[in-house]
Amino acid sequence: MLGMLAVRLFYLTVQSLPYREHEIIVQNNFVIDWYYYIHRFSWENLVRSGWGSVIWPSMDVLSGSFKQTNEWLVWVDCERLPGGLELPATIEEAVAAVARDEVMSTLMNAVDDTDKAVDGSCPVSKAYAAILVAFGLQGDQSALKYLNRAQAFLRQYREKNDFTLVNLMHFQWPMWQVLSLTVNRLAEEQEDSPLTAKSCDLLYCPEGGTPNPVTCECEVIFPVEHRNTSICFFFVDTRRKSSLRNITSILNARFWTLTYGITRAYADEHGYEVEYVQPDNQTHFPERKVGWGKVKVIIDKLREYGPERCSFGVSIDTDAYMRTSEPLAAVIHHYGLDADKLILFSQEYHTENRPDNTFANGGFFIV
Fold first, then answer.
1. Which pairs count as long-range contacts for 61-65, CB under 8 Å and 24+ apart, including other chains?
2. Considering the domain boundaries, does residue 99 fall inside one?
3. Over 130-197, what HEC string results?
4. Where are any strands of DSSP class E within the chain?
5. Is pLDDT larger for residue 346 or for residue 120?
6. 89 plus 168 within the same structural domain
7. Which sign, positive or negative, has the C-alpha torsion 86, 92, 98, 103?
8. Cα 332 to Cα 30: distance, rounded to the nearest angstrom
9. Over the stretch 295-344, which tens digit does the pLDDT of each residue have?
10. Which of 194, 210, 240 is at the close of a domain?
11. Domain count of the chain?
12. Which whole number is the average pLDDT over 80-101?
């Protein structure tokens, strides 16, 4: 997910200024990306993953180009922080400021003062101050702490009409440049740290098998001979999927389109069918939550297509996709769904400590 978001933002840096402005300012197509950057992933994790070294320099490049051409949009929420602290206005001033112990002490006091920190005023300038502290600190853990503090301040800033990201791109102080320098330095310093222990990047097994994230190898989990059968996948989502016909459309596609595309490629490889269905309120989930629509869809579709075309129906949520290269028919045979069972659910691992839980996850099931 982070990789996809990072590539989308980096892609803008190699496009023309009119295209950048159209995507960010006119269409506001990256407001959901910003939501993930600020609310779903901690900035500490952006450093650990390495994607912060792509995201924040890209943000700096885009912000710099916008501020040069849209001077009338450049702004700052506070010229000074509470207590009269004047923030550095250029990267040169920022480097000089964090080299002085008295300035660092003043910045840390302003950021750490709980009463002033949570009063809701000057959230962007306070975020900039926290980033400056992280920039000036040498210890990894201390710097990461202040990056997360900066993120918490920015969460307090919300502009009407979803103009939040546009405003932040035009923030007067060199916040994104200092942030990108800080994250790059931390990433370099943590090369041998447990914080950046490389995770397995094996995502797919083109020669067959299933990626094992523990051994980081492709393994055949379902080796028993099985009879091939007809299988139909159904993605059910009220949001419309977009095209995947070229690199531009792929980079601009939302996750529900990308997961559909990945699973469609898997289905094509094994001779299965995939269908993306936008449910209708009255037909599929009257007086119920939209999630019930996938139950009605799979019932209706299996009745319509019949057992010859769809011996088995698969309901898969649009935030999931097929990571294995093994045929699903082998999974069906392994768990006895082709013998004496009617339905197969995926297991919900993270709720096992809850009492009386059946561990069933409705995000993926086979009928």
1. 61/13, 62/9, 62/12, 62/13, 62/20, 62/24, 62/169, 63/168, 63/169, 63/170, 63/171, 63/176, 64/177, 65/17, 65/20
2. yes
3. HHHHHHHCCCHHHHHHHHHHHHHHHHCCCCHHHCHHHHHHCECCCHHHHHHHHHHHHHHHCCCCHHHC
4. 80-81, 85-86, 210-212, 217-219, 231-236, 273-277, 312-316, 344-347, 360-366
5. 346
6. yes
7. negative
8. 40
9. 889 999 999 999 999 999 999 998 889 989 999 999 998 888 887 888 88
10. 194
11. 2
12. 88
- Residue 250 domain-assigned (yes or no): yes
Among all chains, which residue has been given the structure tokens 């500490």?
A: 44
The reported pLDDT for the residue numbered 358 is: 62
Q: Is there a single domain that holds both residue 184 and residue 226?
A: no
What digits encode the pLDDT tens for the residues 271-297? 999 999 988 877 777 777 777 888 889
- Provide the 3-class DSSP secondary structure of residue 80: strand
Of 107, 87, 167, 182, residue with least CA distance to 116 = 107
Would you state the pLDDT for residue 270?
Answer: 92
CA dist 81 → 91, 121, 335 (Å): 18, 9, 63
Residues 156 and 293 in one domain: no
Distance CA 277, CA 339 (A): 29
Answer yes or no: pTM beyond 0.85: no
Encoded amino acid at 120, one letter = G
Structure tokens given for 343: 């339905």
The two three-digit tokens of residue 205, written as one number: 């097994």
Q: Any bridge partners for residue 249, and if so which?
A: none
Say yes or no: 190 and 232 in one domain.
Answer: no
- Give residue for tokens 């447990």: 194
Domain span at residue 20 reads 2-194
Query: Which residues contact residue 7 at a Cβ distance below 8 angstroms, ignoring those fewer than 6 apart?
Result: 54, 251
Q: Half-sphere exposure of residue 310, counting CA atoms within 13 Å on the CB side? A: 22
Q: CA 51 to CA 80: how far, in whole Å? A: 32
Given CA atoms 20, 23, 24, 26 in this order, what sign does their dihedral have? positive
pLDDT score of 194: 45
- Whether 291 maps to a domain, the answer reads yes
The answer to whether residue 145 scores a pLDDT higher than 50 is: yes
Tell me the pLDDT tens digit for each residue of 252-265: 888 889 999 999 99
Residue 208 lies in a domain: no
Q: How far apart are CA 272 and CA 366, in angstroms?
A: 13
